[in-house]
Amino acid sequence: MELNRRKFLGLTGTALGATALGKPGRAQAARAYQPPPDAYGCLVDLSVCVGCRKCEQACNQVNHLAEPERPFDDLTVLDAKRRPGPEAFTVINRHYTGRRDERNQLAPTFVKVQCMHCQDPACASACIVGALSKKPNGAVHYDVSKCIGCRYCMVACPFQIPAYEYHDPLTPRVRKCTFCFERISQEGGKPGCAQVCPVEAITFGKRSELIKLAKQKMADDPGRYQPTIYGEKEVGGTSWLYISREPFAKLGFQNLPQRPMPHLTETIQHGVFAYMWAPLSLFALLGGAMAVFNRRRDQGEGDK
Amino acid sequence: MSAHSHAAPLQGRARFWSPGALVMAALAVIGFLFVLGRYTGGLGAVSHLSQSHPWGLWIGVDVASGVALAAGGFTTAALAHIFGRHAYEPVVRPALLTALLGYVFVSLALLVDIGRSWAIWKPMVFWNPNSVLFEVAMCVMIYTAVLHAEFLPVVAERFQKGFGASLANRSWPVVAVAELLEGLLAFLNRNLSKVMWLFIIAGVVLSCMHQSGLGSLLLIAPTKMSPLWYTPILPLLFLTSAIAVGFPIVVFENTLVSASFELEDEMDILSRMVRITIVLLGIYGALKIGDVIYRGAWPLIFDGSTQGRAFMVEVLVGVVIPWLMLLFPAVRNHRTPLFIAACLIVGGVVINRINVFLVAYQPPYPVQSYFPSVGEMAITAGFIATLMLAYRFTVYFFPVLSPAGKEAN
To answer: Which of A33, A148, A281, A296 to mutate to test the interface with B (most CBs of B within 10 A)?
Structure first.
């Protein structure tokens, strides 16, 4: 009886595809992923950044990227909004929010953009071969030796970060901020950008410590900061954290859900494929149907 | 399965190089030239793919629509072999062939689309069971192998009398190789036929898995998808639409083939078949419309946006109108209106896949909007043309179609 019921559930399960949605308890259990507890992070204090582009330059050197068309001390680059790309893993954008400084000039706010190194990264969940993975030190690491170039990571990333070498015919790579994986794997190592920042807008450290630090800064200087830490809860948390004087929505930050992006797909996936119960049940059911229908035919001959 | 088939090669009944076939050959050559461009200049040289739009026409049409339109294979196999409706036997082989060629061409299209074509085997070694794409890839790969097994009886039947006279004047190594192949084919056919039922059921199960899996792909990008299409039941919608389009694609293909080779069509079978489509398409339509109302996303249909209009066209032209048409016996029993209804359903599924993968996808920081390039369109057209030529070639030399009427007399 139990078996029959399970077979039945199996059919509906596969047929519905999204069966696990109805059973969140089981599905939660199916998703065992835990973000690394001791991850590093970077806290960016946007109220401090002066937009000097030294971090871009350091990133370029540390990662051996190509020389840009316009030099890093050319600040007119900031006149247009940019996105990270295959040859620039981080960019600074200038935003005017309407705030005026003490001389009544429109005051700019500079925002550093790079891979956020999510705690529960959509790209790593999506990657067909596991070329992208979240490391215990916090970095979302790209292993080019596994990559097949399907670009599903780019589809999955809510921050639109992974960039692709579209003009390489045979060995294109997915390119993004590496969190200076090699450097931070060494004792005392810091990402190039955090090391170089002349105004100490970027603080490198344990993510949990950085959240404490951010809250300390807010408490020490009431009214200076927005009351949220961007990246603390967004998409399940990110290793890069931001605090700001201006509302994040005015600075090109998206309003993102707190739930990790892979939640739904992995819930469905592991709900349907746990012990292959759904495919096997469907197989059994169809086999049964086939036996019944063909016996009926052999006995009666003719279809109708 | 081969025992009760009246399928025969069309060789001798018609010309292979019809004007249509020549046009297809030309399109295939043009497409191939652009493929060369892709392998010398990279994806960027022939496509409008960008950092904000990593997936384009090839994923939406060649892959997603290609897989959906191969659904005729598993739906007819289920109908005739699993549910024992053997009257539908004559359309199983052509549907199987369409599916087989469809999957082969999906794989080839993927080969062009992925950046590192030579690494396409890597998912077999590096598994990521969290990835929906991994599941889809595995199912598609295994199902393609299953389709080859299911198609083997057709090849065996073709060569059952051996190569015969064609070998009369050949030297002994040629004869030896030919005999070896014959023996192998006969051996495989004999033994596979005993376990063919396993393959047939596996084919249906694998299809259900990856057809729905294809719909799960974009569930990982909730913030980038228009709410008109982003729904947790997207896998279910993909599965039900694939099942619903299975018989219309058989009608579509059957009508084209019988027109092209001047065969008698199989209207009696097709008319009966599409009665089932009324139910299947009805289920899909009800789910689709019910879902958008239940989630409260329906006002977006009428907001005047491109997405709203695309959704409206998809549902009206691809689902509602053909469904209403099929309700009338006058449509079901006559070749031209039935063909039109089938075209609408097939087109509706293609529009749906394009909508889900391209129109619904709205990146937060658009670098440039996406519209397929000439190169992308040429390669897609080239693939479709090659597929049709391969189909023509196979039915010409292998017993796939059952040319009724004339043959019987």
So the answer is: A148
Task: Indicate yes or no: CB of B116 within 8 angstroms of CB of A171.
Answer: yes
To which residue do tokens 């929906």 refer? B132
How many CA atoms does the CB half-sphere of B400 hold within 13 Å? 27
| Residue A194: other Cβ atoms inside 10 A | 23
Predicted confidence at residue B164, as pLDDT, reads 63
Tokens of residue B343, six digits: 């075209």
Residue A277 forms contact with B (CB below 8 Å): no
Q: Does A268 sit within 8 Å of B131, measured CB to CB?
A: no
3-class secondary-structure state, position B401: coil
Q: Which of A261, A289, A303 sits opposite B86 (nearest CB)?
A: A303
Whether the CB-CB separation of B147 and B99 falls below 8 Å is answered with yes
B116 → closest Cβ in A126, A149, A282: A149
Indicate if ipTM > 0.90.
yes
Dig out the tokens for B44 from the structure: 């960027």
Nearest to B399 by CA among B149, B86, B185, B97: B97
Task: Flag if B132 and A126 touch (Cβ within 8 Å).
Answer: yes
pLDDT in tens, B150-170: 999 899 888 876 666 566 677
pTM over 0.80: yes
Task: State how far the Cα of A102 lies from the Cα of A124, in Å rounded to an integer.
Answer: 46
Q: Tell me how far apart the alpha carbons of residues A279 and B80 are, in angstroms, rounded to a whole number.
A: 21
Beta bridge pairs of residue A42 = A204, A240
In terms of DSSP bridges, do strands A240-243 and A40-45 run parallel, antiparallel, or are they unpaired? parallel
Contact B392, B1 (CB under 8 A): no
How many angstroms separate the CA of residue A246 from the nearest CA in chain B?
20
